[in-house]
């Protein structure tokens, strides 16, 4: 399993083209076919960018849900709303559609941050507000989320 690494500040132009930093373009080249899926995030006003192999694995789980159960069908519809397939152009840019740009309130200044197997694209001001939690709040969150995990050498 490959993971992205890093947080990058960049700009989006008026046509929705996002020029990616060279270090990130290099990481994206490590994924098989160079195709990515971009979608609205579930919990935050940002976008998620999945390598196609990761997206296919996720969709396999979703298509396993029974669509004759209304909440499953509703979830799949909402989760996949606005999904777009994107590829880097020759200039190392991603084209972000207007509906996704509006969802994430993207202005000129953008932050792209790694989130394991996927990337998140944020408006810079919104990103800074989300990560501006106090050290104590983050410590409590870390303890709650990670405190009961066992870390052995094989898992690291």
TrEMBL record:
Domain SpoVT-AbrB as annotated: residue spans: 7-54, 83-126
Record InterPro entries: MraZ (IPR003444), MraZ_C (IPR035644), MraZ_dom (IPR020603), MraZ_N (IPR035642), MraZ_sf (IPR038619), SpoVT-AbrB_dom (IPR007159), SpoVT-AbrB_sf (IPR037914)
Superkingdom of source: Bacteria
The keyword Repeat is annotated on this UniProt entry: yes
Gene Ontology CC terms, in alphabetical order: cytoplasm; nucleoid
One term of GO molecular function: DNA-binding transcription factor activity
Record keywords, A-Z: Cytoplasm, DNA-binding, Repeat, Transcription, Transcription regulation
CDD domains: MraZ_C, MraZ_N
GO biological process: negative regulation of DNA-templated transcription initiation
Subcellular locations according to the entry: Cytoplasm, Nucleoid
UniProt subunit comment: Forms oligomers.
Family recorded in the similarity comment: Belongs to the MraZ family.
Protein name listed in UniProt: Transcriptional regulator MraZ
Species this protein is from: Kaistella treverensis
């Amino acid at each position: 399993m490959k993971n992205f690494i890093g947080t990058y500040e960049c700009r989006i132009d008026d046509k929705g083209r996002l020029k990616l930093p060279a270090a990130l373009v290099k990481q994206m080249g490590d994924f098989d076919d160079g195709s990515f899926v971009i979608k609205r995030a579930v919990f935050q006003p940002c976008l998620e960018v999945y390598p196609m192999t990761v997206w296919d694995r996720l969709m396999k789980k979703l298509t396993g849900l029974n669509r004759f159960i209304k909440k499953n069908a509703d979830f799949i519809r909402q989760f996949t709303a606005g999904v777009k397939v994107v590829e880097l152009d020759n200039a190392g840019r991603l084209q972000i559609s207007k509906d996704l740009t509006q969802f994430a309130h993207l202005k000129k200044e953008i932050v792209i941050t790694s989130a394991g197997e996927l990337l998140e694209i944020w408006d810079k001001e919104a990103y800074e507000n989300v990560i501006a939690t106090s050290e104590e709040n983050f410590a409590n969150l870390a303890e709650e989320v990670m405190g009961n995990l066992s870390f052995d050498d094989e898992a690291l």
